[in-house]
Amino acid sequence: MHAYGIIGADEPLTQFPPGIADTSVWVFGVNSLAAIVSLLPVEGFGVTDWERNATNVGWLERIARQHHEVLQYAAITAAVVPLRLPSLYGNLESLRETLHAASDRVERALGRIRGRLEWAVKVYRTAEEQNSAANTASTSGRDYLLARSRDLSARSTAQERLREQVGEIHDALGQVSAEYVANQPQDAVLSGHREQMLLNGAYLVSLADQARFLELVGEIADDCLARGLLVEVSGPWPAYNFTGDAEAATREAIK
Amino acid sequence: MSDAAVEKWSDEQVALVDLIDRVIGGGVVITGDLVLGVAGVDLVYLGLRLVLAPAHEVEQSVPLGRRLA
After folding, report:
1. What is the DSSP letter of A20?
2. Domain, as residue range, for A25
3. DSSP single-letter state for residue A76
4. Cα dihedral value A8, A10, A16, A22, nearest 10
5. How far is Cα of residue A74 from the mean position of the Cα atoms in its chain?
6. What is the pLDDT of residue A137?
């Protein structure tokens, strides 16, 4: 049994796209909450399969995409609390007990994201400082060292300024958001961008403020171009970044 | 806003790294009777890196999907 996410029992959601392994997805009510679930094939999707396929990206990608598609579909019409992968339960009774025990926490998470959607904004650095000591025709070793030391201090000042600018962008977007968070920037290998990622922000924006938020992103992006920064926005996402209590989640996972 | 300034992919396929960051790094954990430990999740991250990154870059790279303090 796989659970994708939790919605309020009163949400009128009945149809979903195919779930993991193209299984049918339905809603399983537990008091005032309802879990979006599907019954996975016995073979190939248990905990041992997760352990065995931990480094099998192809296997993981198929599951991750189908898990996400179901949540993305639900998030368009309902407030949905995404469950972290893997989210496996032996049977419906086990899921019922688990959800019942966690209902206060899930209700709080639902309240937090109701009428809000998540947007992602990334900022990359496109321009590099060109005037390095290595390029300067130095007449002596001493000149070279002086030039190099000037370079280093200029570079650290520039880095500092860049950090401030990015912080200002993050806070400006945060002003239009109910909540916002900066995640660890992805390195170039994973982001697929050669440019250095400076900001990997997530913003929880109320439905009424979506247009305003995107307009602000556009203004910031235009402004950034001249400063050698590239802005990238994606969304709306299900509220993956604003439903979990990271600490509690870790504690539970370790238990 | 100029189209060149903002890249947006609402209707396109989501980048795998963004997806993994969210579906494994985000969301809520309500403990079932079948739980993959934290070490298992780190393994999944590592697996993603091994496929996407040349071997020599894996060692010096930072873990992804970890929330900043």
Report:
1. G
2. 2-114
3. H
4. 60
5. 17
6. 63
Tokens 């898990």 correspond to what residue?
A67
Residues A106 and A217 in one domain: no
| Interface contacts A/B by beta carbons within 8 Å | 208
- Give the tokens for residue A66: 């189908």
pLDDT at B26 over 80: yes
Which residues of A fall within a CB distance of 8 Å from B44?
54-55, 60
What are A215's two structure tokens?
Answer: 């307009």
The answer to whether A183 and A202 have CB atoms below 8 angstroms apart is yes
Nearest to B33 among A94, A183, A231 (CB): A94
Q: What is the pLDDT of residue A154?
A: 82
- Ranked by mean pLDDT, the top range of A38-42, A54-58, A116-120 is A116-120
Question: Structural domain tally of chain A?
Answer: 2
- A245's CB contacts (< 8 A; 6+ apart) are A105, B28
pTM for this predicted structure: 0.80
Domain boundary among A114, A138, A161: A114
Of A74, A90, A114, the residue at which a domain comes to its end is: A114
Tally of helices (H runs) and strands (E runs) in chain A:
8, 8
CB A97 within 8 A of CB A214: no
Whether residues A121 and A110 share a domain: the answer is no
Does ipTM surpass 0.85 in this model? no
